[in-house]
Protein backbone atom coordinates (compact mmCIF):
# COMPACT_ATOMS: atom_id res chain seq x y z
CA UNK A 1 0.00 0.00 0.00
CA UNK A 2 1.28 3.43 -0.85
CA UNK A 3 1.56 5.42 2.36
CA UNK A 4 2.32 8.73 0.63
CA UNK A 5 -1.25 10.13 0.42
CA UNK A 6 -1.74 9.48 4.14
CA UNK A 7 1.49 11.35 4.89
CA UNK A 8 0.79 14.31 2.60
CA UNK A 9 -2.68 14.70 4.10
CA UNK A 10 -1.33 14.78 7.66
CA UNK A 11 1.38 17.27 6.73
CA UNK A 12 -1.14 19.52 4.99
CA UNK A 13 -3.59 19.46 7.89
CA UNK A 14 -0.93 20.20 10.49
CA UNK A 15 0.57 23.00 8.42
CA UNK A 16 -2.83 24.55 7.80
CA UNK A 17 -3.44 24.68 11.56
CA UNK A 18 0.00 26.21 12.15
CA UNK A 19 -0.14 28.80 9.39
CA UNK A 20 -3.61 30.26 9.72
CA UNK A 21 -4.88 33.77 10.38
CA UNK A 22 -2.40 34.48 13.19
CA UNK A 23 0.61 33.54 11.06
CA UNK A 24 2.30 36.34 9.11
CA UNK A 25 1.63 35.64 5.39
CA UNK A 26 5.26 35.43 4.27
CA UNK A 27 6.12 33.04 7.11
CA UNK A 28 3.14 30.90 6.09
CA UNK A 29 4.44 30.88 2.52
CA UNK A 30 7.95 29.98 3.67
CA UNK A 31 6.64 27.11 5.78
CA UNK A 32 4.64 25.71 2.88
CA UNK A 33 7.61 26.13 0.56
CA UNK A 34 9.88 24.22 2.94
CA UNK A 35 7.52 21.24 3.18
CA UNK A 36 5.88 21.00 -0.29
CA UNK A 37 6.53 19.49 -2.70
CA UNK A 38 8.52 17.10 -0.58
CA UNK A 39 11.29 14.69 -1.37
CA UNK A 40 10.73 10.96 -1.17
CA UNK A 41 9.26 11.24 2.39
CA UNK A 42 11.46 8.27 3.26
CA UNK A 43 11.46 8.84 7.02
CA UNK A 44 7.68 9.21 7.54
CA UNK A 45 7.02 6.25 5.24
CA UNK A 46 9.42 4.22 7.36
CA UNK A 47 7.66 5.34 10.56
CA UNK A 48 4.24 4.35 9.22
CA UNK A 49 5.55 1.05 7.89
CA UNK A 50 6.93 0.17 11.32
CA UNK A 51 3.66 1.20 13.00
CA UNK A 52 1.78 -1.07 10.58
CA UNK A 53 4.19 -3.95 11.18
CA UNK A 54 3.49 -3.49 14.92
CA UNK A 55 -0.31 -3.55 14.49
CA UNK A 56 -1.01 0.21 14.06
CA UNK A 57 -3.60 0.25 16.85
CA UNK A 58 -3.55 4.06 17.07
CA UNK A 59 -3.23 5.42 13.51
CA UNK A 60 -3.52 9.07 14.63
CA UNK A 61 -0.45 8.57 16.81
CA UNK A 62 1.47 7.04 13.93
CA UNK A 63 0.41 9.79 11.54
CA UNK A 64 1.48 12.48 14.01
CA UNK A 65 4.84 10.85 14.69
CA UNK A 66 5.51 10.45 10.97
CA UNK A 67 4.57 14.07 10.25
CA UNK A 68 6.67 15.33 13.17
CA UNK A 69 9.71 13.52 11.82
CA UNK A 70 9.20 14.96 8.33
CA UNK A 71 8.77 18.50 9.71
CA UNK A 72 12.03 18.12 11.60
CA UNK A 73 13.74 16.83 8.48
CA UNK A 74 12.48 19.84 6.50
CA UNK A 75 13.61 22.19 9.30
CA UNK A 76 17.08 20.70 9.23
CA UNK A 77 17.31 21.16 5.44
CA UNK A 78 16.26 24.83 5.69
CA UNK A 79 18.79 25.59 8.43
CA UNK A 80 21.59 23.49 6.87
CA UNK A 81 21.21 25.43 3.63
CA UNK A 82 21.75 28.80 5.39
CA UNK A 83 24.74 30.93 4.36
CA UNK A 84 26.55 30.20 7.66
CA UNK A 85 26.41 26.44 6.96
CA UNK A 86 26.28 25.05 3.41
CA UNK A 87 25.25 28.31 1.73
CA UNK A 88 23.21 26.22 -0.72
CA UNK A 89 21.38 27.92 -3.59
CA UNK A 90 19.27 24.91 -4.57
CA UNK A 91 17.16 22.35 -2.74
CA UNK A 92 14.82 19.81 -4.34
CA UNK A 93 15.34 21.50 -7.69
CA UNK A 94 14.25 24.98 -6.61
CA UNK A 95 15.91 27.89 -4.78
CA UNK A 96 16.69 27.12 -1.16
CA UNK A 97 14.40 28.77 1.41
CA UNK A 98 16.74 31.64 2.26
CA UNK A 99 17.26 32.36 -1.46
CA UNK A 100 13.50 32.45 -1.98
CA UNK A 101 12.44 34.27 1.23
CA UNK A 102 15.58 35.81 2.70
CA UNK A 103 17.62 34.66 5.66
CA UNK A 104 15.33 35.94 8.48
CA UNK A 105 12.30 33.98 7.25
CA UNK A 106 14.43 30.90 6.61
CA UNK A 107 15.67 30.93 10.21
CA UNK A 108 12.13 31.47 11.48
CA UNK A 109 10.59 28.82 9.21
CA UNK A 110 13.09 26.29 10.53
CA UNK A 111 12.33 27.28 14.12
CA UNK A 112 8.58 27.13 13.52
CA UNK A 113 8.84 23.68 11.90
CA UNK A 114 10.69 22.34 14.94
CA UNK A 115 7.91 23.66 17.15
CA UNK A 116 5.24 22.34 14.80
CA UNK A 117 6.70 18.84 15.02
CA UNK A 118 6.04 18.68 18.75
CA UNK A 119 2.70 20.47 18.51
CA UNK A 120 1.57 17.91 15.92
CA UNK A 121 2.22 15.07 18.35
CA UNK A 122 0.52 16.90 21.24
CA UNK A 123 -2.56 17.79 19.16
CA UNK A 124 -3.15 14.40 17.54
CA UNK A 125 -6.55 12.84 18.27
CA UNK A 126 -4.93 9.74 19.74
CA UNK A 127 -6.78 6.79 21.17
CA UNK A 128 -3.93 6.40 23.62
CA UNK A 129 -2.73 9.91 24.61
CA UNK A 130 -0.49 8.34 27.26
CA UNK A 131 1.89 7.64 24.36
CA UNK A 132 2.52 11.37 23.80
CA UNK A 133 5.39 11.50 26.30
CA UNK A 134 7.30 8.65 24.68
CA UNK A 135 6.77 10.08 21.20
CA UNK A 136 7.94 13.58 22.18
CA UNK A 137 10.95 12.04 23.91
CA UNK A 138 11.95 9.82 20.98
CA UNK A 139 11.51 12.55 18.40
CA UNK A 140 13.26 15.15 20.58
CA UNK A 141 16.28 12.93 21.08
CA UNK A 142 16.64 12.61 17.30
CA UNK A 143 17.15 16.32 16.79
CA UNK A 144 18.63 17.51 20.09
CA UNK A 145 22.14 18.35 21.24
CA UNK A 146 22.72 14.92 22.74
CA UNK A 147 23.42 12.87 19.60
CA UNK A 148 20.62 14.34 17.47
CA UNK A 149 20.71 16.40 14.28
CA UNK A 150 21.85 19.62 15.95
CA UNK A 151 24.74 17.66 17.44
CA UNK A 152 25.54 16.23 14.01
CA UNK A 153 25.66 19.66 12.44
CA UNK A 154 27.67 21.02 15.38
CA UNK A 155 30.37 18.37 14.89
CA UNK A 156 31.21 20.35 11.73
CA UNK A 157 32.24 23.20 14.07
CA UNK A 158 34.76 21.05 15.98
CA UNK A 159 38.44 20.62 15.07
CA UNK A 160 38.39 16.87 15.89
CA UNK A 161 35.42 14.80 14.77
CA UNK A 162 34.44 11.20 15.41
CA UNK A 163 33.08 10.29 11.97
CA UNK A 164 30.81 7.51 13.22
CA UNK A 165 29.26 9.81 15.86
CA UNK A 166 28.93 12.53 13.24
CA UNK A 167 27.00 10.38 10.76
CA UNK A 168 24.92 8.71 13.44
CA UNK A 169 23.85 12.11 14.79
CA UNK A 170 23.40 13.89 11.49
CA UNK A 171 21.59 11.16 9.55
CA UNK A 172 21.09 8.01 11.61
CA UNK A 173 19.26 9.73 14.45
CA UNK A 174 16.20 10.74 12.45
CA UNK A 175 15.95 7.31 10.78
CA UNK A 176 16.17 5.78 14.24
CA UNK A 177 13.39 8.12 15.36
CA UNK A 178 11.30 6.88 12.42
CA UNK A 179 11.54 3.23 13.41
CA UNK A 180 11.40 3.81 17.18
CA UNK A 181 8.53 6.32 17.03
CA UNK A 182 6.62 4.08 14.60
CA UNK A 183 6.81 1.26 17.13
CA UNK A 184 6.00 3.57 20.08
CA UNK A 185 2.96 4.96 18.25
CA UNK A 186 1.64 1.40 17.96
CA UNK A 187 2.33 0.66 21.61
CA UNK A 188 5.15 -1.83 20.91
CA UNK A 189 8.41 -2.12 22.84
CA UNK A 190 10.23 0.53 20.85
CA UNK A 191 13.94 0.54 21.70
CA UNK A 192 14.52 -2.82 19.88
CA UNK A 193 13.74 -0.87 16.70
CA UNK A 194 16.62 1.60 17.14
CA UNK A 195 19.46 -0.45 15.60
CA UNK A 196 17.38 -1.04 12.47
CA UNK A 197 16.73 2.68 12.02
CA UNK A 198 20.36 3.57 12.60
CA UNK A 199 21.47 1.00 10.04
CA UNK A 200 18.99 2.23 7.43
CA UNK A 201 20.24 5.75 8.14
CA UNK A 202 23.81 4.64 7.59
CA UNK A 203 22.84 2.98 4.30
CA UNK A 204 21.07 6.16 3.27
CA UNK A 205 24.14 8.23 4.08
CA UNK A 206 26.42 5.99 1.98
CA UNK A 207 23.88 6.09 -0.88
CA UNK A 208 23.80 9.89 -0.56
CA UNK A 209 27.60 10.04 -0.75
CA UNK A 210 27.49 7.86 -3.88
CA UNK A 211 24.80 10.10 -5.43
CA UNK A 212 26.79 13.21 -4.68
CA UNK A 213 29.75 11.61 -6.45
CA UNK A 214 28.09 10.09 -9.54
CA UNK A 215 24.86 12.08 -9.91
CA UNK A 216 24.23 15.23 -11.90
CA UNK A 217 22.65 18.43 -10.58
CA UNK A 218 19.52 17.67 -12.63
CA UNK A 219 19.13 14.25 -11.00
CA UNK A 220 19.84 15.48 -7.49
CA UNK A 221 17.90 18.76 -7.51
CA UNK A 222 20.98 20.33 -5.91
CA UNK A 223 24.61 20.75 -6.98
CA UNK A 224 26.68 17.56 -7.30
CA UNK A 225 30.17 17.11 -5.91
CA UNK A 226 29.45 19.21 -2.79
CA UNK A 227 31.12 16.80 -0.36
CA UNK A 228 34.48 17.21 -2.09
CA UNK A 229 34.02 20.96 -2.60
CA UNK A 230 33.12 21.53 1.07
CA UNK A 231 35.68 19.05 2.43
CA UNK A 232 32.92 16.99 4.03
CA UNK A 233 33.40 13.36 5.01
CA UNK A 234 32.13 10.93 2.36
CA UNK A 235 32.20 7.14 2.06
CA UNK A 236 33.19 7.47 -1.61
CA UNK A 237 36.09 9.82 -0.92
CA UNK A 238 37.18 7.60 1.97
CA UNK A 239 36.73 4.10 0.46
CA UNK A 240 36.49 4.60 -3.29
CA UNK A 241 33.32 4.09 -5.32
CA UNK A 242 33.40 0.30 -5.59
CA UNK A 243 33.98 -0.31 -1.89
CA UNK A 244 31.28 2.27 -1.02
CA UNK A 245 28.77 0.34 -3.15
CA UNK A 246 29.82 -2.87 -1.40
CA UNK A 247 29.32 -1.20 1.97
CA UNK A 248 25.86 -0.07 0.93
CA UNK A 249 24.90 -3.64 -0.04
CA UNK A 250 26.08 -5.06 3.26
CA UNK A 251 24.22 -2.36 5.25
CA UNK A 252 20.97 -3.17 3.45
CA UNK A 253 21.43 -6.87 4.23
CA UNK A 254 22.19 -6.04 7.87
CA UNK A 255 19.08 -3.86 8.09
CA UNK A 256 16.87 -6.68 6.83
CA UNK A 257 18.34 -8.96 9.50
CA UNK A 258 17.69 -6.40 12.26
CA UNK A 259 13.90 -6.30 11.98
CA UNK A 260 12.57 -7.18 15.48
CA UNK A 261 9.87 -9.81 15.88
CA UNK A 262 6.48 -8.24 15.15
CA UNK A 263 3.12 -9.25 13.66
CA UNK A 264 4.02 -8.01 10.17
CA UNK A 265 7.66 -9.12 10.20
CA UNK A 266 7.93 -10.89 6.83
CA UNK A 267 6.12 -8.19 4.87
CA UNK A 268 8.13 -5.49 6.59
CA UNK A 269 11.44 -7.18 5.76
CA UNK A 270 10.45 -7.37 2.09
CA UNK A 271 9.50 -3.70 2.23
CA UNK A 272 12.90 -2.76 3.64
CA UNK A 273 14.66 -4.45 0.74
CA UNK A 274 12.29 -2.81 -1.73
CA UNK A 275 12.52 0.65 -0.18
CA UNK A 276 16.26 0.76 0.24
CA UNK A 277 16.52 0.35 -3.53
CA UNK A 278 15.01 3.84 -3.74
CA UNK A 279 18.21 5.13 -2.14
CA UNK A 280 20.21 4.07 -5.17
CA UNK A 281 21.37 6.69 -7.62
CA UNK A 282 19.72 6.41 -11.06
CA UNK A 283 21.42 3.70 -13.10
CA UNK A 284 22.41 1.74 -9.99
CA UNK A 285 18.95 0.50 -8.97
CA UNK A 286 19.98 -3.15 -9.05
CA UNK A 287 22.70 -2.71 -6.47
CA UNK A 288 20.64 -3.92 -3.53
CA UNK A 289 18.79 -6.65 -5.39
CA UNK B 1 9.49 32.16 48.93
CA UNK B 2 12.24 32.71 46.40
CA UNK B 3 11.59 30.38 43.48
CA UNK B 4 14.90 31.09 41.76
CA UNK B 5 16.98 28.22 43.23
CA UNK B 6 14.29 25.72 42.19
CA UNK B 7 14.38 27.13 38.65
CA UNK B 8 18.17 27.23 38.35
CA UNK B 9 18.40 23.63 39.55
CA UNK B 10 15.88 22.40 36.98
CA UNK B 11 17.59 24.30 34.17
CA UNK B 12 20.99 22.91 35.18
CA UNK B 13 19.75 19.32 35.38
CA UNK B 14 17.97 19.47 32.03
CA UNK B 15 20.95 21.09 30.34
CA UNK B 16 23.35 18.54 31.81
CA UNK B 17 21.26 15.74 30.34
CA UNK B 18 21.12 17.47 26.95
CA UNK B 19 24.79 18.37 26.73
CA UNK B 20 26.52 15.20 27.87
CA UNK B 21 29.02 12.91 26.16
CA UNK B 22 27.14 12.81 22.84
CA UNK B 23 27.03 16.61 22.55
CA UNK B 24 29.88 18.29 20.66
CA UNK B 25 31.87 20.28 23.27
CA UNK B 26 31.51 23.70 21.65
CA UNK B 27 27.75 23.24 21.25
CA UNK B 28 27.58 22.27 24.93
CA UNK B 29 29.48 25.45 25.81
CA UNK B 30 27.20 27.57 23.62
CA UNK B 31 24.08 26.07 25.22
CA UNK B 32 25.38 26.78 28.71
CA UNK B 33 26.40 30.30 27.67
CA UNK B 34 22.91 31.01 26.33
CA UNK B 35 21.18 29.94 29.54
CA UNK B 36 23.62 30.93 32.36
CA UNK B 37 23.85 33.34 34.01
CA UNK B 38 20.25 34.15 33.25
CA UNK B 39 18.26 37.33 33.38
CA UNK B 40 15.53 37.79 35.96
CA UNK B 41 13.87 34.44 35.02
CA UNK B 42 10.58 36.33 35.08
CA UNK B 43 8.65 33.83 32.94
CA UNK B 44 9.55 30.64 34.84
CA UNK B 45 9.00 32.39 38.18
CA UNK B 46 5.57 33.40 36.93
CA UNK B 47 4.82 29.81 35.83
CA UNK B 48 5.82 28.39 39.22
CA UNK B 49 3.89 31.09 41.09
CA UNK B 50 0.73 30.21 39.15
CA UNK B 51 1.28 26.49 39.78
CA UNK B 52 1.61 27.21 43.50
CA UNK B 53 -1.50 29.41 43.48
CA UNK B 54 -3.33 26.44 41.89
CA UNK B 55 -2.14 23.93 44.50
CA UNK B 56 1.05 22.66 42.80
CA UNK B 57 -0.01 19.01 43.09
CA UNK B 58 2.65 17.87 40.59
CA UNK B 59 5.80 19.93 41.24
CA UNK B 60 7.86 18.04 38.63
CA UNK B 61 5.35 19.07 35.97
CA UNK B 62 5.52 22.71 37.08
CA UNK B 63 9.33 22.65 37.15
CA UNK B 64 9.48 21.16 33.66
CA UNK B 65 6.99 23.66 32.24
CA UNK B 66 8.87 26.57 33.81
CA UNK B 67 12.21 25.33 32.50
CA UNK B 68 10.78 24.73 29.03
CA UNK B 69 9.51 28.30 28.88
CA UNK B 70 12.90 29.69 29.95
CA UNK B 71 14.75 27.54 27.38
CA UNK B 72 12.44 28.88 24.67
CA UNK B 73 13.01 32.43 25.88
CA UNK B 74 16.80 31.90 25.74
CA UNK B 75 16.48 30.35 22.26
CA UNK B 76 14.54 33.36 21.03
CA UNK B 77 17.20 35.74 22.38
CA UNK B 78 20.00 33.82 20.66
CA UNK B 79 18.20 33.77 17.30
CA UNK B 80 16.92 37.36 17.58
CA UNK B 81 20.48 38.58 18.13
CA UNK B 82 21.71 36.95 14.88
CA UNK B 83 23.15 39.22 12.16
CA UNK B 84 20.09 38.69 9.93
CA UNK B 85 17.81 40.07 12.70
CA UNK B 86 19.04 42.55 15.31
CA UNK B 87 22.77 41.93 14.72
CA UNK B 88 23.29 42.52 18.44
CA UNK B 89 26.80 42.49 19.89
CA UNK B 90 25.75 42.37 23.54
CA UNK B 91 23.26 40.39 25.59
CA UNK B 92 22.99 40.32 29.38
CA UNK B 93 26.21 42.32 29.59
CA UNK B 94 28.37 39.93 27.60
CA UNK B 95 28.93 39.22 23.90
CA UNK B 96 25.88 37.76 22.17
CA UNK B 97 26.06 34.02 21.39
CA UNK B 98 27.04 34.45 17.75
CA UNK B 99 29.76 36.93 18.72
CA UNK B 100 31.12 34.46 21.26
CA UNK B 101 30.72 31.20 19.30
CA UNK B 102 30.12 32.16 15.68
CA UNK B 103 26.90 32.13 13.73
CA UNK B 104 26.64 28.37 13.04
CA UNK B 105 26.76 27.44 16.72
CA UNK B 106 24.36 30.24 17.60
CA UNK B 107 21.79 28.92 15.11
CA UNK B 108 22.30 25.37 16.40
CA UNK B 109 22.18 26.37 20.07
CA UNK B 110 18.84 28.08 19.46
CA UNK B 111 17.52 25.03 17.63
CA UNK B 112 18.74 22.68 20.36
CA UNK B 113 17.16 24.82 23.09
CA UNK B 114 13.79 24.67 21.33
CA UNK B 115 14.08 20.89 21.22
CA UNK B 116 15.26 20.74 24.82
CA UNK B 117 12.18 22.64 25.96
CA UNK B 118 9.89 19.89 24.73
CA UNK B 119 12.22 17.08 25.83
CA UNK B 120 12.25 18.56 29.33
CA UNK B 121 8.47 18.31 29.55
CA UNK B 122 8.41 14.77 28.12
CA UNK B 123 11.17 13.54 30.47
CA UNK B 124 9.84 15.05 33.72
CA UNK B 125 9.12 12.52 36.46
CA UNK B 126 5.51 13.66 36.69
CA UNK B 127 2.91 12.20 38.99
CA UNK B 128 0.34 12.89 36.30
CA UNK B 129 2.00 12.20 32.92
CA UNK B 130 -1.38 12.64 31.22
CA UNK B 131 -0.68 16.39 31.52
CA UNK B 132 2.25 16.16 29.09
CA UNK B 133 0.05 16.68 26.02
CA UNK B 134 -1.52 19.89 27.36
CA UNK B 135 1.84 21.26 28.43
CA UNK B 136 3.50 20.55 25.08
CA UNK B 137 0.51 22.11 23.32
CA UNK B 138 0.47 25.27 25.45
CA UNK B 139 4.21 25.80 25.25
CA UNK B 140 4.32 25.02 21.53
CA UNK B 141 1.59 27.53 20.77
CA UNK B 142 3.63 30.24 22.52
CA UNK B 143 6.56 29.91 20.14
CA UNK B 144 4.97 28.62 16.92
CA UNK B 145 3.98 30.27 13.66
CA UNK B 146 0.37 30.71 14.72
CA UNK B 147 0.66 33.72 17.03
CA UNK B 148 3.78 32.58 18.86
CA UNK B 149 7.28 34.06 19.04
CA UNK B 150 8.31 32.99 15.54
CA UNK B 151 5.19 34.73 14.24
CA UNK B 152 6.09 37.83 16.25
CA UNK B 153 9.58 37.97 14.79
CA UNK B 154 8.21 37.24 11.30
CA UNK B 155 5.88 40.27 11.48
CA UNK B 156 9.11 42.28 11.21
CA UNK B 157 9.47 40.82 7.70
CA UNK B 158 6.04 42.10 6.54
CA UNK B 159 5.38 45.47 4.95
CA UNK B 160 2.12 45.97 6.90
CA UNK B 161 2.05 45.05 10.57
CA UNK B 162 -0.76 44.90 13.12
CA UNK B 163 1.09 46.27 16.16
CA UNK B 164 -1.15 44.59 18.72
CA UNK B 165 -0.74 41.20 17.03
CA UNK B 166 3.00 41.82 16.77
CA UNK B 167 3.47 42.51 20.48
CA UNK B 168 1.09 39.78 21.55
CA UNK B 169 3.00 37.24 19.48
CA UNK B 170 6.50 38.47 20.22
CA UNK B 171 6.17 39.09 23.96
CA UNK B 172 2.70 38.30 25.27
CA UNK B 173 2.64 34.73 24.00
CA UNK B 174 5.42 33.44 26.25
CA UNK B 175 4.02 35.22 29.31
CA UNK B 176 0.66 33.66 28.50
CA UNK B 177 2.40 30.29 28.25
CA UNK B 178 3.86 30.90 31.71
CA UNK B 179 0.48 31.46 33.36
CA UNK B 180 -1.41 28.86 31.31
CA UNK B 181 1.25 26.16 31.63
CA UNK B 182 1.62 26.88 35.35
CA UNK B 183 -2.08 26.21 35.79
CA UNK B 184 -2.03 23.17 33.48
CA UNK B 185 0.91 21.69 35.38
CA UNK B 186 -1.18 21.86 38.55
CA UNK B 187 -4.20 20.31 36.85
CA UNK B 188 -6.30 23.50 36.96
CA UNK B 189 -8.57 24.79 34.19
CA UNK B 190 -5.83 26.62 32.35
CA UNK B 191 -7.30 28.83 29.63
CA UNK B 192 -8.77 31.33 32.20
CA UNK B 193 -5.14 32.19 32.99
CA UNK B 194 -4.32 33.35 29.44
CA UNK B 195 -5.59 36.95 29.65
CA UNK B 196 -3.54 37.53 32.80
CA UNK B 197 -0.36 36.30 31.12
CA UNK B 198 -0.98 38.37 28.02
CA UNK B 199 -1.53 41.49 30.13
CA UNK B 200 1.64 40.93 32.14
CA UNK B 201 3.45 40.46 28.84
CA UNK B 202 2.07 43.72 27.56
CA UNK B 203 3.17 45.50 30.75
CA UNK B 204 6.61 43.96 30.38
CA UNK B 205 6.84 45.17 26.78
CA UNK B 206 5.94 48.75 27.74
CA UNK B 207 8.46 48.61 30.60
CA UNK B 208 11.08 47.33 28.16
CA UNK B 209 10.33 50.20 25.78
CA UNK B 210 10.73 52.65 28.68
CA UNK B 211 14.02 51.01 29.71
CA UNK B 212 15.33 51.17 26.18
CA UNK B 213 14.53 54.88 26.17
CA UNK B 214 15.77 55.97 29.61
CA UNK B 215 18.30 53.27 30.55
CA UNK B 216 22.02 53.19 29.92
CA UNK B 217 23.95 50.35 28.30
CA UNK B 218 25.48 49.53 31.71
CA UNK B 219 22.04 49.15 33.30
CA UNK B 220 20.55 47.17 30.43
CA UNK B 221 23.45 44.85 29.62
CA UNK B 222 22.81 45.70 25.97
CA UNK B 223 22.89 48.93 23.94
CA UNK B 224 20.22 51.52 24.80
CA UNK B 225 18.12 53.34 22.23
CA UNK B 226 17.88 50.32 19.92
CA UNK B 227 14.15 50.72 19.19
CA UNK B 228 14.70 54.13 17.68
CA UNK B 229 17.89 53.08 15.88
CA UNK B 230 16.21 50.00 14.35
CA UNK B 231 12.88 51.72 13.65
CA UNK B 232 11.06 49.26 15.89
CA UNK B 233 7.66 50.00 17.39
CA UNK B 234 7.87 51.38 20.94
CA UNK B 235 5.27 52.67 23.40
CA UNK B 236 7.57 55.56 24.31
CA UNK B 237 8.12 56.63 20.71
CA UNK B 238 4.40 56.25 20.04
CA UNK B 239 2.89 57.81 23.21
CA UNK B 240 5.70 59.81 24.81
CA UNK B 241 7.41 58.87 28.08
CA UNK B 242 4.78 60.12 30.51
CA UNK B 243 1.85 58.43 28.79
CA UNK B 244 3.86 55.22 28.45
CA UNK B 245 4.45 55.19 32.22
CA UNK B 246 0.70 55.77 32.72
CA UNK B 247 -0.05 52.87 30.41
CA UNK B 248 2.29 50.64 32.36
CA UNK B 249 0.54 51.51 35.65
CA UNK B 250 -2.88 50.73 34.22
CA UNK B 251 -1.68 47.40 32.77
CA UNK B 252 -0.32 46.35 36.15
CA UNK B 253 -3.65 47.20 37.79
CA UNK B 254 -5.52 45.30 35.09
CA UNK B 255 -3.28 42.26 35.56
CA UNK B 256 -4.00 42.19 39.30
CA UNK B 257 -7.72 42.24 38.52
CA UNK B 258 -7.43 39.35 36.04
CA UNK B 259 -6.21 36.71 38.48
CA UNK B 260 -8.70 33.82 38.20
CA UNK B 261 -10.21 32.30 41.35
CA UNK B 262 -7.71 29.82 42.83
CA UNK B 263 -6.69 28.55 46.28
CA UNK B 264 -3.80 31.03 46.58
CA UNK B 265 -5.56 33.99 44.97
CA UNK B 266 -4.80 36.75 47.52
CA UNK B 267 -1.13 35.89 47.88
CA UNK B 268 -0.74 35.57 44.15
CA UNK B 269 -2.30 38.98 43.52
CA UNK B 270 0.12 40.56 45.97
CA UNK B 271 2.96 38.79 44.23
CA UNK B 272 1.90 40.16 40.84
CA UNK B 273 2.05 43.71 42.18
CA UNK B 274 5.41 43.05 43.80
CA UNK B 275 6.91 41.31 40.78
CA UNK B 276 5.78 43.79 38.16
CA UNK B 277 7.80 46.39 40.05
CA UNK B 278 10.86 44.46 38.90
CA UNK B 279 10.00 45.49 35.35
CA UNK B 280 10.61 49.11 36.20
CA UNK B 281 13.81 50.77 35.02
CA UNK B 282 16.19 51.76 37.85
CA UNK B 283 15.07 55.01 39.45
CA UNK B 284 11.41 54.36 38.58
CA UNK B 285 10.72 51.53 41.04
CA UNK B 286 7.86 53.34 42.68
CA UNK B 287 5.87 53.64 39.50
CA UNK B 288 3.64 50.64 40.11
CA UNK B 289 3.30 51.14 43.82
TrEMBL record, chains A, B:
A Pfam family matched in the record: polyprenyl_synt
UniProt keyword terms in alphabetical order: Isoprene biosynthesis, Magnesium, Metal-binding, Transferase
SUPFAM superfamilies found in the cross-reference section: Terpenoid synthases (SSF48576)
InterPro entries: Isoprenoid_synthase_dom_sf, Polyprenyl_synt, Polyprenyl_synt_CS
GO biological process, one term: terpenoid biosynthetic process
PROSITE patterns noted in UniProt: POLYPRENYL_SYNTHASE_1, POLYPRENYL_SYNTHASE_2
KW Transmembrane helix (keyword) present: no
Cofactors, names only: Mg(2+)
Source organism, top-level taxon: Bacteria
GO MF annotation list: metal ion binding; prenyltransferase activity
Family per record: Belongs to the FPP/GGPP synthase family.
Protein name as annotated: Probable farnesyl diphosphate synthase
Amino acid sequence: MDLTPRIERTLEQALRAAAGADCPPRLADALHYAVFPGGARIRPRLALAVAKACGDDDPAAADAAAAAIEFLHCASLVHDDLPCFDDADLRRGKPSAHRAFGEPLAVLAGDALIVLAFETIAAAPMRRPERIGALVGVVGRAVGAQGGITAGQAWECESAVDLAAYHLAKTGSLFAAATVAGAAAAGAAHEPWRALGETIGEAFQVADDISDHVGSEAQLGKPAGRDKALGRPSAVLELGLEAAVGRLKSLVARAAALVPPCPGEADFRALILHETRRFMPSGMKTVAA
